[in-house]
Design a protein that fits this description.
The protein is α/β, with parallel strands linked by helices. The chain folds into two domains: 172 residues, HUPs (Rossmann fold, 3-Layer(aba) Sandwich); 98 residues, Pantoate--beta-alanine Ligase, Chain: A,domain 2, CATH 3.30.1300. A six-stranded parallel sheet has the order 1-4-3-2-5-6, with helices on both faces. Helix 9 packs antiparallel against helix 10. The longest helix has 15 residues. It starts with a strand and ends in a 5-residue tail after the last strand. 38% of the residues are buried. The structure holds adenosine monophosphate (AMP). The site of adenosine monophosphate has 17 residues, from helix 2 and strand 5.
Length: 284
């Protein structure tokens, strides 16, 4: 595995592979890798000739009172895991290489960024859209892999790619969970044993809503109330949102009369966790 820090060097590798006609997979991450990230890498390895991964904790997607400084960083373990999976190229830029002095150009994210996370984390998707487009320029791969765990982020990236004619195919990969259902997340490392138990409240609420829907309840207000109740009963201490919305537009629904997605952002102790589940046939 070749490890590079400079955007020019990273571009040169991808450019070389493109000239050879290779199918190139890209897996952008913020590191502190877990099986969820590694599943994206495995899928890329299966579907592409070469795989590039990136590790960069992107400061512009964190709000001023969020966990940028504390965000877990485990470079040695990450390098080891990626190298064991035979990743061809790892891009680990220092912050100054991506945000040089005077940096001031940002992507205004698409409308689908506005609800949910957009309300709770006002500049989050501006930072995400900006860094993702930068990475797509530095590493112009054939296919980019993202997790459905970050459902709205995936929708934002799909829209960005379509709106700005970015010549890259975006693939969404299923959420990888712990055996008890907790969605894997780098932020799970923050949880104490008691909080780890309470973190299951998200999966409990999502499975409750899925069961209710399966049993014929289609009123969104009822489904959302059940999610809230389960979240609080099972130990979440604050809910940013627990919503059932159209799975493509993320717009509010009165009844689930089309494919929908239930999305949760909730705090367990000081840790903010997100998760989601599809209701109905189609996924984003
Ligand atoms: P992050 O390092 O949190 O920015 O995540 C990097 C990529 O991994 C994003 O596309 C995430 O959606 C994806 N990802 C994170 N957790 C999971 C998971 N549990 N299952 C599948 N993909 C995930």
């Amino acid at each position: 595995m070749k490890i590079v820090e400079s955007p020019h060097e990273a571009y040169a590798h991808i450019d070389h592979w493109r000239r050879d006609g290779l199918r190139i997979g890209l897996v952008p991450t913020m590191g502190a890798l877990h099986e969820g990230h590694l599943a994206l890498v495995r899928q890329s390895r299966q579907e592409c000739d070469v795989t590039a991964a990136t590790i960069f904790v992107n400061p512009t997607q964190f709000g001023p009172h969020e966990d940028y400084a504390q965000y877990p960083r485990t470079p040695e373990a990450d390098f080891q895991a990626l190298s064991e999976l035979d990743v061809d190229l790892l891009f680990v830029p220092p912050q100054a290489k991506l945000y040089s002095e005077g940096f001031s150009t940002y992507i205004h994210p698409p409308a689908i960024a506005e609800p949910l996370e957009g309300v709770c984390r006002p500049d989050h998707f501006r930072g995400v859209a900006t860094i993702v487009l930068k990475l797509f320029h530095i590493l112009p791969a054939t296919v980019a892999y993202f997790g459905q765990k970050d459902y709205q982020q995936l929708a934002v990236i799909r829209r960005l790619v379509e709106d700005l004619d970015v010549p890259i195919r975006v693939v969404g990969c299923e959420t990888v969970r712990e055996p008890d259902g907790l969605a894997m997340s780098s932020r799970n490392r923050y949880l104490s044993p008691a909080e780890r138990q309470a973190a299951l409240s998200l999966w409990a609420a999502l499975t409750t809503v899925k069961e209710l829907f399966g049993a014929g309840t289609d009123q969104v207000a009822e489904l959302e109330k059940a999610m809230e109740q389960t979240l609080y009963e099972r130990g979440a201490n604050r809910i940013d949102y627990a919503r059932v919305v159209d799975c493509d537009s993320l717009q509010t629904l009165g009844r689930v009369d089309r494919p929908a997605v239930a999305l949760i952002a909730a705090y367990v102790g000081a840790t903010r966790l997100i998760d989601n589940i599809l209701l109905g046939e189609r996924g984003a």
